[in-house]
Design brief:
Helices cover 57% and strands 5% of the residues. The protein is mainly alpha-helical and 297 residues long. The protein has two domains: 19-228, Rhomboid-like fold, CATH 1.20.1540.10; 233-295, no CATH class.
Length: 297
Amino acid sequence: MGVGDRAYMQNTIPFRSGISGSVIVLCLIVGFYLVGLVQDSTRIDLTSWATLPEINSAPWQWFTYAFIHYSFWHLLGNALGLWWLGKAVEEYYDEKVFYQTLCGGIILGALCWWLTGVSGVRSENHILIGISGGVYALMVVALLDRLDQVITLLLFFFIPVNIKARWLLITLLVVTLLGWGFSELPGRHTWTNWKPALDWAMGTSLAHSAHLGGFLFGWLMWKYQNQTNRSGGGALSTMSNPFDDDSATSIQPKNGQKIVQVRAELDVLLDKISVKGFGSLTESEKRRLAELSDQLK
């Protein structure tokens, strides 16, 4: 059987039953937004129990704050990111990884936000809301394996802009760090020699620290998933324990590599396909898979 004949090499989408995690979370944040509209109309407090205040916070508020969006544009931006990135993570990994990444980004984002205000003037009126930390974590996990993939973004929701995933991540990370260091951090303290320098561009109301926490957890989750998937296969043991058959190691493929090395590198790619599916391979990995397969024919 050739490499292309293997079941997991067929570029088909596996059957998924039930509602995806992305849709469930999307329905939750939209539902909470509608409750917020009712709150604004009736002047009855319905959502303050879910927001995260700087002081006197309840344990559940470190998670529930993510479902509250007071602004329509805030909701729309996060909803679009959740829909696109959440589906990518679920297809690339699975629904479990989606939930783990989202929840971890939410919690670590809240922790970074809280730590940013340490030694500052704290108030119950200063609260954190929005699922941005989780969305940023999903973005990192979804795109780090697709750095050369070209993504089309709709700037201001109608101007198409093409950008590689690599530069999207770098741009957003730089904006987040600048916003945190020159807007949010000094804006939440009374330091005499360090004042907000980017209020005009980013505003102190934007929680860059929560985005930073999402970036950090997304990177940690991506590292964990890649290490787990690599250690789960037999490729590494094959590389460290070559075949004892001298006739096998003496065969030289077209590029000069020993056949054992070719098989070992091929096993790494096949292990990734068996765990994540053929669609998880980057374009360079697909080309490399074809090259290795040709060398073993």
